[in-house]
Task: inverse folding
């Protein structure tokens, strides 16, 4: 028995001496020993600066000053981990039982750099090879006689992880994908059956982003299995929640909900400062749906419901995370209200949409900001019961918007406007300065609605069809309108021109109270430098037809046009063709008979009458002289020849002595 007591005493004494030696060992010596052991196990350099302090019971722990941990040999030269100070503590009694219960990991000002290249992660560590060759049977799968079988590992838990003022960097195939600074992070996982909970905070413009995350089954997640995930994020101006599944590669699938009270502020918090969301498109937003994210940067939203300000949408969307992002969406809505989309800018006179200084003619001279055309690429299709924009409202419409490198194409398949249908496309291109163009076909258009809305012209009404091809270039509304070129046609059924009565003007003594009712109107036109020119207008009325020709100043907002009515019936001799000239600004043109044309026509007619009268008198006198009846100039020549022949005969007979 005595020998047993002596052995126990010797063991305790030896353990005490070892512990005492470690406690009394200088910090730099302890640091060197730890660095050698880490390199032996991982192949990475561990550099410890300052004193290294150890504790043994009840927590086996270490505290250091500045520390760096080397990167993988294939990765960048920067360390994988560095910190100003590091404290690690493990439950000693649990460690004796084979479990790793981490009591604390606390780091100040750490920089964690994670790199992935060709499927390898710099966080994957293996002990360096000893260089010993296998001299056994030659089968590489057969362990050497003295090689130990893999030891079974116990459970690993974490009571406290705390990073203060951290920088987190993620690099994939040499390209930085993420770099966040000023991160404060806390995590705990007290038991293998308990959820792992983590919270993090990071400063951003306007405040801070706060993240709360919970993984109910961390062991399954760590093994690469798909596991549940609950995540909540708050930022200046809004919040995001996710409840679904995730895997170790970061792929996610679950219910996502985004709410914003100030979308501009939230976009600025995520690095999109300077973006101003138009009213009606989500200054305040509530978006939910089933979201799937894949590791190649693709996001899909299904069963999506979006409430953007006063508007709501249903549909689906696919987004590829890139610069710029690529979007493909299919949306439907009821009554879409975009009448306040330009709220905050001064309204323009005469239908302009920009703020700032106005041109005297009415088109805005404010620069047009076309930079939003570069925010994304892709295609968005929208079906709406109605779409209200400033000064006009579309009815049921099927629209498709394609974006490609600052070029937008809006296709109408069809769109309902001014009680009619529009098909075709409109293009806005901002690749090398702004230009707008289009190729449209219209049917059943309410002409008065269209002209009143687009140009303030209220005198012409009817139902119109037509075509339009146009192109305009400029950085302001005024520049674009003054540069318009193109061509088109118009075909109007029964309609009315207010402001003058063509029947009364033509002398019938009756009319329709200051209006002209026509049965049809057709015309083709060309556009150049903001001027529309037409030379073949034809208006059909019950008793007349009217031809038209002239210029419409699209840029100058003026008109100089002449209608020339032609009587289709004799009208009892009481009428006269009086051309009508429309001239002046769109807002108040003058409509007057063109008396110069009347005088010119009357003068020409009078000259014809005088000419005929003189001719008749000359023929009568010639007839008297020639003793015959003459009705035209040809008869004068014939009668004169006959007279000469008769006189010649008489002279010849007389010469021959005959009567």
Result:
């Amino acid at each position: 028995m005595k020998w047993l007591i002596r052995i126990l005493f010797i063991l305790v004494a030896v353990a005490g001496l070892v512990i005492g030696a470690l406690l009394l060992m200088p910090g730099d010596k302890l640091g060197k020993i730890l660095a050698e052991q880490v390199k032996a196990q991982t192949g990475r350099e561990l550099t410890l600066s300052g004193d290294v302090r150890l504790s043994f019971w009840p927590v086996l722990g270490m505290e250091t000053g500045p520390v760096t941990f080397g990167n993988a040999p294939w990765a960048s030269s920067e360390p994988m981990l560095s910190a100003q100070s590091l404290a690690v503590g493990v439950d000693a009694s649990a460690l004796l039982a084979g479990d790793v219960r981490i009591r604390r990991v606390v780091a100040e000002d750490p920089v964690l750099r994670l790199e992935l290249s060709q499927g390898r992660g710099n966080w994957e560590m293996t002990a360096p090879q000893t260089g010993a060759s296998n001299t056994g049977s030659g089968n590489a799968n057969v362990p050497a006689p003295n090689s130990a079988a893999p030891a079974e590992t116990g459970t690993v838990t974490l009571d406290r992880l705390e990073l203060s003022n951290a920088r987190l960097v993620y690099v994939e195939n040499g390209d930085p994908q993420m770099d966040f600074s000023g991160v404060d992070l806390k995590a705990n996982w007290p038991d293998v059956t308990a959820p792992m909970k983590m919270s993090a905070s990071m400063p951003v413009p306007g405040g801070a982003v706060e993240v709360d995350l919970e993984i109910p089954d961390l062991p399954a997640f760590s093994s690469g299995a798909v596991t549940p995930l609950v995540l909540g994020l708050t930022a200046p101006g809004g919040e995001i929640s996710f409840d679904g599944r995730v895997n170790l590669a970061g792929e996610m699938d679950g219910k996502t909900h985004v709410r914003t009270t100030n979308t501009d502020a939230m976009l600025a918090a995520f690095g999109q400062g300077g973006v101003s969301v138009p009213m009606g498109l989500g200054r305040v937003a509530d978006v939910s749906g089933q979201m799937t994210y894949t590791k190649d940067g693709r996001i899909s939203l299904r069963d999506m419901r979006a409430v953007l300000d006063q508007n709501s949408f249903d549909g689906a969307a696919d987004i590829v995370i890139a610069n710029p992002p690529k979007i493909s969406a299919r949306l439907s809505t009821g009554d879409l209200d975009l009448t306040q989309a330009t709220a905050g800018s001064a309204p323009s006179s005469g239908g302009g949409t920009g703020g700032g200084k106005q041109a005297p003619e009415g088109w805005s001279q404010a620069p047009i900001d076309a930079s939003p055309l570069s925010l994304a690429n892709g295609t968005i299709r929208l079906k709406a019961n109605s779409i209200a924009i400033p000064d006009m409202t579309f009815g049921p419409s099927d629209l498709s918007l394609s974006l490609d490198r600052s070029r937008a194409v809006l296709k109408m398949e069809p769109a309902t406007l001014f009680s009619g249908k529009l098909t075709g496309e409109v293009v806005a291109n901002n690749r090398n300065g702004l230009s707008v163009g289009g190729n449209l076909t219209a049917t059943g258009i309410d002409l008065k609605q269209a002209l009143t809305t687009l140009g303030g012209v209220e005198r012409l009404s009817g139902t119109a069809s037509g075509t339009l091809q146009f192109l305009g270039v400029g950085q302001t509304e005024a520049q674009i309108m003054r540069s318009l070129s193109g061509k088109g046609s118009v075909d109007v059924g029964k309609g009315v021109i207010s402001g003058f009565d063509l029947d009364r003007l033509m002398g019938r003594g009756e009319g329709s109270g200051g209006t002209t009712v026509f049965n049809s109107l057709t015309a083709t036109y060309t556009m150049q430098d903001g001027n529309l020119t037409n030379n073949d207008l034809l208006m059909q009325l019950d008793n007349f037809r009217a031809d038209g020709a002239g210029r419409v100043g699209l840029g100058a907002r003026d008109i100089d046009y002449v209608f020339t009515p032609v009587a289709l019936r004799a009208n009892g001799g009481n009428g006269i063709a009086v051309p009508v000239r429309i001239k002046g600004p769109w807002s108040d043109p003058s409509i007057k008979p063109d008396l110069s044309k009347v005088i010119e026509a009357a003068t020409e007619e009078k000259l014809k009458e005088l000419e005929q009268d003189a001719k008749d008198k000359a023929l009568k006198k010639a007839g008297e002289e020639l003793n015959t009846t003459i009705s035209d100039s040809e008869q004068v020549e014939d009668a004169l020849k006959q007279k000469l022949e008769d006189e010649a005969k008489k002279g010849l007979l007389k010469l021959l002595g005959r009567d």
Q: What stands out?
A: Confidence is low (pLDDT under 50) at residues 1-25, 132-153, 344-360, 570-575. DSSP finds ten helices and 35 strands in the chain. The longest strand covers residues 156-172. Residues 595-626 form the longest helix (32 residues).
